[in-house]
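Re: Re: ligand-bound prediction request (bumping)

Still looking for help on this. To restate: I need the protein modeled with pyridoxal-5'-phosphate bound, output as structure tokens. Inputs repeated here so nobody has to scroll up.
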Amino acid sequence: MGGNEMKYIQHAFDTNWIAPAGDNIAGFEQDFGNFLGVKAVAALTSGTAALHLALRLINIRQGDEVLVQTHTHIATVNPITYQCATPILIDSEPETWNMSPEMLEKAIKDRIAKGKKPKAIIPVHLYGMPAKIEEIMAIAKQYDIPVVEDAAESLGAKINGKHTGTFGTMGVFSFNGNKIITTSGGGALVSNEPEYCQKATFLATQARDEAPHYQHSEIGYNYRMSNIVAGIGRGQMEVLDKRIAARRANFDFYTQELANLPVSFVKEPEGFFANRWLTTILTDSYEQREKIRLALAAENIESRPLWKLMHLQPVFKDVPAYTNGVSEDLFNRGLCLPSGSNLTDADKERIVGVIKGCF
Ligand SMILES: *Cc1c(COP(=O)(O)O)cnc(C)c1O
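Reply:
Sorry for the wait, this slipped through. Here it is.
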């Protein structure tokens, strides 16, 4: 926590708005929108809820196909299934590790040839590295398919000064406990078309019609962020820049210390700015990756392989996938290193000491 969160929580208590309504929600939405330079924000209970609402808002329904990055956390894909639609999984390109524009276009053409045009594209800015979103947007425009950006891990990441999450029709963020800022649990939907956020807020509060009694013409959800949680968010916004600097400093430390070893890092392409939410390394082989992971574990240091690909998940075994081998290779050889904003120099020295000892 940054320090001022309790001040905003106290404000919620002082004004007695212990509810999914109140000043903190409006204040947090304002601060968040200003930071991103986006027109509208809807504060919600989670990033997953934000993705679900985004798909509802562009009318994804039973039988529809949604193109989504296979190299991601399952939270990106689950909301597609909540709408009874079918995920179509797309492989990565090696530079950013995110959705390959080439594979995306190949998949679109193939799905159209098979008789169905995909209804949405969900690229992910995984680990805080922006995807090649400008190329993806160009393809989306050509085929007239809306884009929902999963920016859950990339708050603060930019391309030529423009924030991830603000390129697509809508963008989604998460304030889960493990993200770069946290409200314990929370999320946001953002858009430069304010009607989307208005409608999201409406659906997130049980889709209640304007009437003196409770009246509903649509099915809604209970997805609105609480005023207490939003107070944590307001405090966290004050330290977001510091958190990004700390994550980037972790990355710089690891790259310097491990420079002479056969491990590589994802570099920022020209104009890209990553928040370095997690520092990830690529080793020479699966065996080498496991050797490092187990050596760290033996010292009670947690690390984790990259997110297991969606097309390799038992639950999605029958889902169509357009793969090129890139993400599977990354999954076999990649490792997420300890990346907390509060890692001390001594912590980091200890971590690189163990890694160096593996060579
Ligand atoms: C965390 C995360 C989400 C989901 O956010 P929650 O707030 O945990 O629901 C979605 N996508 C990615 C890539 C994430 O890392």
